[in-house]
Task: structure prediction
Amino acid sequence: MGIPTKLLEFLNHGKVQYEVIHHPVAFTAQELAAIEHVKGRNHAKVVIVIAGDRKLMAVLPADHRVDLAKLDQILGQRTMLATETDLQAQFPDCAVGTMPPFGSLYGLPTYVDRSLTDAEFIVFEGGTHTDAVRMSYADYARLAQPQVAEFAVKLR
Result:
């Protein structure tokens, strides 16, 4: 399985500069950040959350975790993390846990934590455990058009 074609087409159609980075197998955002010599605050990880009967994409730095209580307040309803089964069904062209941070490609609203918005660039998984994409945060924000909110807590 390679980088999803729809991701590459989306980036190219958006006329943004990006770099595909091939790397050894990595299963967590923190591992990828270390392999790529990127600070955790620049690695954008994706967490899928279920709020009522809908799913949403939460994008945050690798050195943070989602605070579901904060998301509950933002969304006005109880939230929970999606299961691996939910992910396989929603992202059939991605290895589990490697979804790119563009919810619109998968019919999901995208929320980005405010702490990521200060980044000059971000690196994110490109649908596989061996491919990442690096691009400017400004270009990411222009393409993803995420809702910006504060829902993440820095890991210790």
